[in-house]
Amino acid sequence: MESKSNKLIVIAGLLLFCNLLFAQVPLKYGAQREGKRTDSAMQKWRDNRFGQFVTFGLFSVPGGHWNGKYYGGAAEWIKSSAKISNEAYDSLRANFNPQRFDAKEWARTAKQMGAKYALITTKFHDGFCLWPSKYTDFDIENTPYKKDLLKEFVDAYNAEGIDVVFYYSVLDWHHPDWRYDIKNEQDSIAFDRYWNWMTLQIEELMLRYPSVIGFWYDGTWDKSVVKRGKYTWDLEKKMQSINPYIISGSRLRADETGARHFDANKKMMGDYEQGWERKLPEKPLKNDWECVMTVPENQWGYHSDWRGHVKTPYEVLEMVAACTSLSGNFMLNFGPKGDGSIRKEEQFIAGEVGKWMRVNGEAIYNCEGAGLPEQKWGYYTMNHKTGKVYMVVFNKPVNGALRVKLHKGTRLVEARLLEGKKKLDLEEVSRQEYFVHINVKAKGKYPFVIEIDLRQGEGEAEKQYVAPKI
Fold first, then answer.
1. Structure pTM?
2. Helix (H) / strand (E) containing 186
């Protein structure tokens, strides 16, 4: 009896533990949905796959230097890193006159690179607005430039068939009502004023530039925002009331428990996962996601001195392919100079990446992971519309044989270079395992793509290796 009683106690304890482990926290301001969005606007965002991230603002004028001193941190943070007073920093408005800014040239550069969507910083942490906002005088209207830079940007990029996303910083070093934390009633009143003001600016941006497909929020990590999860929910709902198809990532959101990106029940808030800044996941994710990447190690806004490692076009292309193979999006950052011109290093990367994309973009756009076992030669992608499968080859084996492993009941019937459609020799070596022999040279110094045809059914090796019945 004692033994049976102990067993019942153990079982009851395990059941209680399981209930606690899988219990759902009651939330009013958590995730709005489970699973991926299925509407056409979100699918278009996925199919774009490759984009341009543009970091531009007042910080582009000093370019990482202040009073003759070099600051090695991210150049757009120079107000903070150089401890510049509001008065001194705000005076940069008098020098903000990007006469070499040519929205059409920027858009052509993005299109040449192969970008299908682009983002621009409408307002960074410094609070300066790149559009003539009726809610502040700390904007482009009160500079020598005066013109609406955002309108020029949106019109030029849309004319090239490129979707536009707006970056907006919730954190604001300039606004007197911004609070890093809410410690008392005065902080609460001030922060409420700030949030109402900020919401009006978002509404202004959405109504002034209605073709913009999404918002990319930043500066949401401070306690003031985390303690006001309801506010982030309300802002998301406000945006959806203006445009039901607007896209917004997980960075904006917090729930009432203080959880960010993912609510207390581990469900993603927002339309796609935004935790991948300058890094890539190692395996597929269940959510839509996006990686944003800099060319130097950590410079977004213009810095006159790029020190340390600077990425090559080859590295950029590999990250684009890797993201696509994991069903994610990739955005490459550009930090134009204060005069509005794009630096030559970024122009070079755009040109080289674009050459490859014009030949091999078929393996990126409209593509996702193919669900095949990863191989060391590179990455698989699959066009979700046509079902075509691609091998994006970055590491050619010494013997020229690329290993392909398939799932049970699938066989490889043909492989050919995407460029020129030259057929490649196949060798079936065991069950669902093949070698694709590279018996021709792919043009150029960059990675090449192989298109493969798969069929259901047994191959010769499958038949050969069936174990005899005993």
1. 0.92
2. helix 185-208
